[in-house]
Q: What sequence folds into this?
Protein backbone atom coordinates (compact mmCIF):
# COMPACT_ATOMS: atom_id res chain seq x y z
CA UNK A 1 0.00 0.00 0.00
CA UNK A 2 2.78 2.39 0.80
CA UNK A 3 4.08 1.99 -2.74
CA UNK A 4 0.72 3.20 -4.03
CA UNK A 5 0.44 6.25 -1.82
CA UNK A 6 3.95 7.58 -2.05
CA UNK A 7 4.68 9.58 -5.16
CA UNK A 8 8.07 10.64 -6.46
CA UNK A 9 9.05 14.27 -5.98
CA UNK A 10 7.80 16.55 -8.71
CA UNK A 11 10.24 17.96 -11.23
CA UNK A 12 10.12 21.73 -11.26
CA UNK A 13 8.61 22.77 -14.60
CA UNK A 14 10.24 25.77 -16.24
CA UNK A 15 7.37 28.25 -16.56
CA UNK A 16 9.33 31.21 -17.86
CA UNK A 17 9.02 30.37 -21.53
CA UNK A 18 5.39 29.26 -21.47
CA UNK A 19 2.58 31.05 -23.23
CA UNK A 20 -1.12 30.35 -22.85
CA UNK A 21 -3.14 31.61 -25.81
CA UNK A 22 -6.81 31.93 -24.86
CA UNK A 23 -9.90 33.18 -26.66
CA UNK A 24 -10.73 36.80 -25.98
CA UNK A 25 -12.92 37.13 -22.89
CA UNK A 26 -13.87 40.78 -23.21
CA UNK A 27 -17.54 39.88 -23.47
CA UNK A 28 -20.52 42.20 -23.14
CA UNK A 29 -23.01 39.31 -23.22
CA UNK A 30 -23.30 35.91 -21.58
CA UNK A 31 -21.87 33.09 -23.70
CA UNK A 32 -21.99 29.31 -23.23
CA UNK A 33 -18.50 29.28 -21.70
CA UNK A 34 -19.82 31.18 -18.68
CA UNK A 35 -21.70 28.03 -17.65
CA UNK A 36 -18.86 25.58 -18.14
CA UNK A 37 -17.41 25.49 -14.63
CA UNK A 38 -14.03 26.88 -15.70
CA UNK A 39 -12.26 30.23 -15.79
CA UNK A 40 -15.18 32.08 -17.38
CA UNK A 41 -17.62 30.73 -14.77
CA UNK A 42 -15.29 31.83 -11.99
CA UNK A 43 -15.00 35.31 -13.48
CA UNK A 44 -18.79 35.60 -13.66
CA UNK A 45 -19.08 34.68 -9.97
CA UNK A 46 -16.16 36.86 -8.88
CA UNK A 47 -17.12 39.99 -10.81
CA UNK A 48 -20.93 39.86 -10.96
CA UNK A 49 -22.54 37.69 -8.28
CA UNK A 50 -20.16 37.81 -5.31
CA UNK A 51 -19.90 41.64 -5.20
CA UNK A 52 -23.68 41.94 -5.53
CA UNK A 53 -24.58 39.39 -2.88
CA UNK A 54 -21.65 39.65 -0.47
CA UNK A 55 -21.60 37.80 2.82
CA UNK A 56 -19.07 35.44 4.44
CA UNK A 57 -21.08 32.27 3.77
CA UNK A 58 -21.10 32.85 0.02
CA UNK A 59 -17.40 33.70 0.04
CA UNK A 60 -16.52 30.05 0.67
CA UNK A 61 -17.89 29.12 -2.79
CA UNK A 62 -18.15 25.45 -1.85
CA UNK A 63 -20.47 22.83 -3.29
CA UNK A 64 -22.75 23.66 -0.36
CA UNK A 65 -22.80 26.16 2.50
CA UNK A 66 -22.50 24.93 6.08
CA UNK A 67 -24.79 26.90 8.41
CA UNK A 68 -25.20 27.04 12.19
CA UNK A 69 -28.92 26.97 13.01
CA UNK A 70 -30.54 26.19 16.33
CA UNK A 71 -27.48 24.37 17.61
CA UNK A 72 -27.26 22.16 14.52
CA UNK A 73 -24.85 22.33 11.59
CA UNK A 74 -26.74 22.24 8.32
CA UNK A 75 -25.46 21.97 4.76
CA UNK A 76 -27.54 23.85 2.19
CA UNK A 77 -27.14 23.63 -1.58
CA UNK A 78 -29.02 24.46 -4.77
CA UNK A 79 -28.46 23.51 -8.40
CA UNK A 80 -30.20 23.85 -11.76
CA UNK A 81 -30.19 21.19 -14.48
CA UNK A 82 -30.47 21.96 -18.18
CA UNK A 83 -29.02 18.81 -19.72
CA UNK A 84 -29.85 17.86 -23.27
CA UNK A 85 -31.12 15.21 -24.09
CA UNK A 86 -33.54 14.61 -21.24
CA UNK A 87 -32.77 10.87 -21.23
CA UNK A 88 -29.32 9.34 -21.70
CA UNK A 89 -27.58 6.00 -21.04
CA UNK A 90 -27.55 5.54 -17.28
CA UNK A 91 -30.15 8.14 -16.30
CA UNK A 92 -32.09 11.28 -17.06
CA UNK A 93 -32.29 14.94 -16.12
CA UNK A 94 -34.43 13.83 -13.15
CA UNK A 95 -31.72 11.51 -11.80
CA UNK A 96 -29.19 14.31 -12.19
CA UNK A 97 -31.43 16.75 -10.33
CA UNK A 98 -31.53 14.51 -7.27
CA UNK A 99 -28.01 13.12 -7.31
CA UNK A 100 -26.35 16.41 -8.17
CA UNK A 101 -27.77 18.16 -5.13
CA UNK A 102 -27.40 15.16 -2.81
CA UNK A 103 -23.74 14.90 -3.84
CA UNK A 104 -23.12 18.59 -3.23
CA UNK A 105 -24.38 18.10 0.32
CA UNK A 106 -22.26 14.97 0.72
CA UNK A 107 -19.12 16.93 -0.20
CA UNK A 108 -19.67 18.86 3.05
CA UNK A 109 -20.01 15.55 4.90
CA UNK A 110 -23.76 16.08 5.33
CA UNK A 111 -26.42 13.41 5.44
CA UNK A 112 -28.96 14.75 2.97
CA UNK A 113 -32.51 14.92 4.36
CA UNK A 114 -34.85 17.06 2.24
CA UNK A 115 -35.05 18.44 -1.28
CA UNK A 116 -37.09 21.12 -2.98
CA UNK A 117 -37.87 20.67 -6.66
CA UNK A 118 -38.78 23.32 -9.24
CA UNK A 119 -39.93 22.30 -12.73
CA UNK A 120 -39.75 24.80 -15.60
CA UNK A 121 -41.79 23.24 -18.39
CA UNK A 122 -41.86 24.29 -22.03
CA UNK A 123 -45.25 24.53 -23.66
CA UNK A 124 -45.69 21.44 -25.84
CA UNK A 125 -43.76 18.99 -23.63
CA UNK A 126 -45.51 15.62 -23.87
CA UNK A 127 -47.23 14.69 -20.63
CA UNK A 128 -46.06 11.04 -20.80
CA UNK A 129 -42.47 12.33 -20.92
CA UNK A 130 -43.12 14.55 -17.90
CA UNK A 131 -44.66 11.59 -16.11
CA UNK A 132 -41.61 9.41 -16.75
CA UNK A 133 -39.32 12.13 -15.43
CA UNK A 134 -41.45 12.71 -12.32
CA UNK A 135 -41.36 8.98 -11.57
CA UNK A 136 -37.61 8.89 -12.16
CA UNK A 137 -37.06 11.82 -9.80
CA UNK A 138 -39.12 10.18 -7.08
CA UNK A 139 -37.27 6.90 -7.47
CA UNK A 140 -33.89 8.65 -7.37
CA UNK A 141 -34.88 10.52 -4.20
CA UNK A 142 -35.92 7.30 -2.49
CA UNK A 143 -32.68 5.59 -3.54
CA UNK A 144 -30.68 8.50 -2.12
CA UNK A 145 -32.62 8.49 1.15
CA UNK A 146 -34.09 11.99 0.80
CA UNK A 147 -37.63 13.33 0.71
CA UNK A 148 -38.96 15.88 -1.76
CA UNK A 149 -40.59 18.24 0.72
CA UNK A 150 -41.64 21.21 -1.43
CA UNK A 151 -41.66 22.34 -5.03
CA UNK A 152 -42.86 24.67 -7.75
CA UNK A 153 -43.96 24.48 -11.40
CA UNK A 154 -43.75 27.12 -14.12
CA UNK A 155 -44.56 26.93 -17.85
CA UNK A 156 -42.83 29.03 -20.52
CA UNK A 157 -43.83 29.57 -24.14
CA UNK A 158 -42.89 27.07 -26.83
CA UNK A 159 -39.34 27.65 -28.02
CA UNK A 160 -38.15 29.12 -24.71
CA UNK A 161 -37.50 26.13 -22.46
CA UNK A 162 -35.78 23.26 -24.32
CA UNK A 163 -38.43 20.87 -23.05
CA UNK A 164 -37.79 20.98 -19.33
CA UNK A 165 -35.39 22.44 -16.76
CA UNK A 166 -35.23 21.36 -13.11
CA UNK A 167 -33.94 23.18 -10.04
CA UNK A 168 -33.35 21.35 -6.78
CA UNK A 169 -32.21 22.61 -3.40
CA UNK A 170 -31.31 20.41 -0.48
CA UNK A 171 -30.53 20.47 3.21
CA UNK A 172 -28.76 17.94 5.38
CA UNK A 173 -27.09 17.53 8.76
CA UNK A 174 -23.32 17.74 9.14
CA UNK A 175 -22.02 15.33 11.82
CA UNK A 176 -20.03 16.70 14.74
CA UNK A 177 -16.29 16.81 14.15
CA UNK A 178 -16.56 16.95 10.34
CA UNK A 179 -14.91 19.99 8.72
CA UNK A 180 -14.44 19.56 4.98
CA UNK A 181 -13.00 22.58 3.17
CA UNK A 182 -10.01 23.21 0.91
CA UNK A 183 -8.31 25.49 3.43
CA UNK A 184 -7.54 22.39 5.52
CA UNK A 185 -5.41 20.80 2.78
CA UNK A 186 -1.68 20.66 3.58
CA UNK A 187 1.38 19.41 1.69
CA UNK A 188 1.62 15.65 2.04
CA UNK A 189 -2.12 15.02 1.76
CA UNK A 190 -2.92 12.06 -0.48
CA UNK A 191 -5.30 12.60 -3.42
CA UNK A 192 -7.79 9.79 -4.04
CA UNK A 193 -10.40 9.53 -6.79
CA UNK A 194 -13.33 7.19 -6.24
CA UNK A 195 -13.33 5.57 -9.69
CA UNK A 196 -13.19 5.88 -13.45
CA UNK A 197 -13.52 9.42 -14.82
CA UNK A 198 -15.24 10.88 -17.88
CA UNK A 199 -18.18 8.48 -18.18
CA UNK A 200 -21.00 11.01 -17.87
CA UNK A 201 -19.66 13.47 -20.41
CA UNK A 202 -18.94 10.77 -22.98
CA UNK A 203 -22.37 9.16 -22.43
CA UNK A 204 -24.07 12.50 -23.11
CA UNK A 205 -21.88 13.07 -26.15
CA UNK A 206 -22.67 9.66 -27.60
CA UNK A 207 -26.44 10.20 -27.66
CA UNK A 208 -26.39 13.91 -28.44
CA UNK A 209 -24.10 13.62 -31.43
CA UNK A 210 -25.04 10.07 -32.50
CA UNK A 211 -21.47 8.84 -32.08
CA UNK A 212 -20.31 5.30 -31.38
CA UNK A 213 -17.08 4.62 -29.55
CA UNK A 214 -16.83 0.83 -29.85
CA UNK A 215 -18.65 0.19 -26.56
CA UNK A 216 -21.75 1.53 -24.86
CA UNK A 217 -20.76 4.23 -22.37
CA UNK A 218 -23.16 4.67 -19.45
CA UNK A 219 -23.29 7.73 -17.21
CA UNK A 220 -21.93 7.26 -13.68
CA UNK A 221 -24.81 9.31 -12.21
CA UNK A 222 -25.25 8.10 -8.61
CA UNK A 223 -25.74 9.42 -5.04
CA UNK A 224 -22.49 9.52 -3.10
CA UNK A 225 -23.81 9.95 0.44
CA UNK A 226 -23.25 6.31 1.40
CA UNK A 227 -19.68 6.33 0.11
CA UNK A 228 -18.89 9.50 2.06
CA UNK A 229 -20.36 8.00 5.24
CA UNK A 230 -18.11 4.96 4.80
CA UNK A 231 -15.09 7.23 4.47
CA UNK A 232 -16.03 9.34 7.50
CA UNK A 233 -16.53 6.16 9.53
CA UNK A 234 -12.78 5.57 9.16
CA UNK A 235 -11.94 9.09 10.33
CA UNK A 236 -13.81 12.41 10.44
CA UNK A 237 -10.46 14.07 9.70
CA UNK A 238 -10.83 14.12 5.92
CA UNK A 239 -9.64 17.48 4.63
CA UNK A 240 -11.79 18.13 1.56
CA UNK A 241 -14.10 16.32 -0.87
CA UNK A 242 -15.29 17.47 -4.29
CA UNK A 243 -17.45 15.88 -6.97
CA UNK A 244 -15.77 16.69 -10.29
CA UNK A 245 -18.80 17.60 -12.40
CA UNK A 246 -18.52 20.59 -14.79
CA UNK A 247 -14.91 21.00 -15.84
CA UNK A 248 -14.11 17.46 -14.68
CA UNK A 249 -11.26 16.35 -12.46
CA UNK A 250 -9.10 19.22 -13.71
CA UNK A 251 -11.48 21.90 -12.45
CA UNK A 252 -11.94 20.24 -9.05
CA UNK A 253 -8.20 19.87 -8.45
CA UNK A 254 -7.47 23.43 -9.55
CA UNK A 255 -10.18 24.88 -7.34
CA UNK A 256 -8.82 23.01 -4.32
CA UNK A 257 -5.19 23.89 -5.09
CA UNK A 258 -6.04 27.56 -5.50
CA UNK A 259 -8.12 27.81 -2.34
CA UNK A 260 -5.60 25.83 -0.26
CA UNK A 261 -2.49 27.56 -1.60
CA UNK A 262 -0.76 24.25 -2.31
CA UNK A 263 0.49 22.53 -5.44
CA UNK A 264 -0.92 19.22 -6.61
CA UNK A 265 1.06 16.50 -8.38
CA UNK A 266 -0.93 13.84 -10.22
CA UNK A 267 0.49 10.58 -11.54
CA UNK A 268 -1.26 10.48 -14.90
CA UNK A 269 -1.09 6.69 -15.32
CA UNK A 270 -2.77 6.15 -11.96
CA UNK A 271 -5.89 8.09 -12.94
CA UNK A 272 -8.55 5.51 -13.94
CA UNK A 273 -9.71 6.33 -17.47
CA UNK A 274 -11.92 3.61 -19.06
CA UNK A 275 -10.85 2.53 -22.57
CA UNK A 276 -14.09 3.80 -24.22
CA UNK A 277 -13.58 7.23 -22.61
CA UNK A 278 -9.93 7.30 -23.65
CA UNK A 279 -10.90 6.28 -27.19
CA UNK A 280 -13.66 8.87 -27.45
CA UNK A 281 -11.38 11.63 -26.18
CA UNK A 282 -8.60 10.61 -28.56
CA UNK A 283 -11.05 10.63 -31.47
CA UNK A 284 -12.44 14.07 -30.61
CA UNK A 285 -9.28 15.74 -29.33
CA UNK A 286 -10.53 16.02 -25.74
CA UNK A 287 -8.70 15.50 -22.45
CA UNK A 288 -10.42 13.05 -20.01
CA UNK A 289 -9.32 15.25 -17.10
CA UNK A 290 -11.80 17.90 -18.29
CA UNK A 291 -14.79 15.63 -19.01
CA UNK A 292 -17.71 15.79 -16.56
CA UNK A 293 -18.58 13.15 -13.98
CA UNK A 294 -21.78 12.75 -11.95
CA UNK A 295 -21.01 9.88 -9.58
CA UNK A 296 -17.37 10.33 -8.59
CA UNK A 297 -15.53 12.24 -5.90
CA UNK A 298 -11.97 13.35 -5.29
CA UNK A 299 -10.65 13.40 -1.71
CA UNK A 300 -7.65 15.00 -0.05
CA UNK A 301 -6.82 12.76 2.91
CA UNK A 302 -4.10 13.04 5.59
CA UNK A 303 -1.39 10.54 4.69
CA UNK A 304 -1.72 8.63 7.96
CA UNK A 305 -5.37 7.82 7.17
CA UNK A 306 -5.06 7.26 3.41
CA UNK A 307 -4.63 3.48 3.44
CA UNK A 308 -7.66 2.87 5.66
CA UNK A 309 -9.84 5.37 3.77
CA UNK A 310 -8.89 3.80 0.44
CA UNK A 311 -9.80 0.35 1.75
CA UNK A 312 -13.19 1.60 2.97
CA UNK A 313 -13.87 3.20 -0.40
CA UNK A 314 -13.01 0.02 -2.28
CA UNK A 315 -15.38 -1.95 -0.03
CA UNK A 316 -18.29 0.28 -1.16
CA UNK A 317 -19.96 -0.36 -4.56
CA UNK A 318 -19.41 3.25 -5.67
CA UNK A 319 -15.72 3.19 -4.69
CA UNK A 320 -14.67 -0.24 -5.93
CA UNK A 321 -12.26 1.33 -8.46
CA UNK A 322 -10.92 4.00 -6.09
CA UNK A 323 -7.28 4.89 -6.69
CA UNK A 324 -4.56 7.07 -5.26
CA UNK A 325 -3.64 9.52 -8.02
CA UNK A 326 -1.25 12.00 -6.38
CA UNK A 327 -0.51 14.31 -3.48
CA UNK A 328 -0.50 17.91 -2.32
CA UNK A 329 2.95 19.54 -2.37
CA UNK A 330 4.59 22.79 -1.29
CA UNK A 331 5.95 23.51 -4.78
CA UNK A 332 4.04 25.53 -7.42
CA UNK A 333 1.17 26.62 -5.09
CA UNK A 334 -2.17 26.88 -6.83
CA UNK A 335 -0.98 24.78 -9.77
CA UNK A 336 -1.85 21.19 -10.74
CA UNK A 337 0.91 19.27 -12.53
CA UNK A 338 0.63 15.78 -14.02
CA UNK A 339 3.61 13.47 -14.32
CA UNK A 340 3.23 11.61 -17.59
CA UNK A 341 4.07 8.01 -18.36
CA UNK A 342 7.18 9.17 -20.23
CA UNK A 343 8.56 10.89 -17.13
CA UNK A 344 7.74 14.44 -18.17
CA UNK A 345 5.29 16.91 -16.67
CA UNK A 346 2.37 18.90 -17.96
CA UNK A 347 0.20 21.51 -16.33
CA UNK A 348 -3.45 20.61 -15.79
CA UNK A 349 -4.93 24.08 -15.93
CA UNK A 350 -8.41 25.29 -15.06
CA UNK A 351 -10.51 24.98 -18.22
CA UNK A 352 -11.59 28.21 -19.88
CA UNK A 353 -15.15 27.13 -20.58
CA UNK A 354 -16.59 23.68 -21.16
CA UNK A 355 -15.52 21.10 -23.75
CA UNK A 356 -19.09 19.81 -23.94
CA UNK A 357 -21.82 22.27 -22.90
CA UNK A 358 -25.14 21.38 -21.27
CA UNK A 359 -23.98 18.18 -19.55
CA UNK A 360 -25.86 18.77 -16.27
A:
Amino acid sequence: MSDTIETPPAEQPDLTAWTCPLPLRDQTRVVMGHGGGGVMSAELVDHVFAPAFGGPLLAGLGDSAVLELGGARLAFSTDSFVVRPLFFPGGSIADLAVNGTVNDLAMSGARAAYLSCGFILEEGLELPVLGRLAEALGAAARAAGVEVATGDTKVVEAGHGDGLYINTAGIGLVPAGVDLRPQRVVPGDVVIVSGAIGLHGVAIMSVREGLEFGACVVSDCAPLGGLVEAMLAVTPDLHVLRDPTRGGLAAALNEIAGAAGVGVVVQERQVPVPPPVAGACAMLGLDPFYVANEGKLVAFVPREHAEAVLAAMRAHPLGAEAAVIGEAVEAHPGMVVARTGLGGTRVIDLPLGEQLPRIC
About this structure: The chain has two domains: 2-8+179-347, 62-173. The longest strand covers residues 111-122. The longest helix spans residues 127-144.
